[in-house]
Amino acid sequence: MDLQGLIPIVLYDNRCYLCTKFASIVSLLAGGRFSLIGHYTNIGEKIREQILDSSALEMFWFIDGKTAYGGRAALAALIRSLFSAKARKPVNSVDFAACDTGCKTAKAVFVRSTSLLTHSRKITIQ
Predict the structure, then answer these.
(1) How does residue 4 score in pLDDT terms, banded at 50, 70 and 90?
(2) What pLDDT score was predicted for residue 43?
(3) For 65, which DSSP code?
(4) CA–CA separation, 33 vs 49, rounded Å?
(5) Are 9 and 35 in contact (CB under 8 A)?
């Protein structure tokens, strides 16, 4: 799969209410410069199969073309890229309809927030 037309990519859990809110905030801050792709979309599944490892669904990912950053490592890369990314046509697929009410609870927010801080990965893309 050729990712060059999609880079930079924010890969997030599109079945999680909190994650989709996070993705929409990233989209707003980035001004449409990032491709927002859900883990469970066709493109997201292809990215997970070809680039990421078995921990892919445990966190959100930021992919800049050379490296895939997951979780805590992705936050720093994402913030850096917010200030340096060039304008391009993004692929945005933030879908709030996929979330059920179970992912909107305080417990779900706590679990996702701690997951973001406790998980961290960095994968070099070849």
Answers:
(1) confident
(2) 92
(3) S
(4) 24
(5) yes
Q: Name, in order, each residue with C-beta under 8 angstroms of 52's C-beta and a sequence gap of 6 or more.
A: 11, 61, 68, 70, 123
- Beta partners for residue 124, in sequence order: 67
Long-range contacts, stretch 82-85, CB < 8 angstroms, 24+ apart:
82/29, 82/30, 85/8, 85/30, 85/33, 85/34
pLDDT digits 0-9 by tens, 90-100: 555 555 455 55
CB 16, CB 81: distance < 8 Å: no
Q: Which residue has the tokens 């805590």?
A: 72
Residue appearing with tokens 């892919």: 56
What the block records as the tokens of 63 is: 């992919």
Q: What is the pTM assigned to this prediction?
A: 0.75
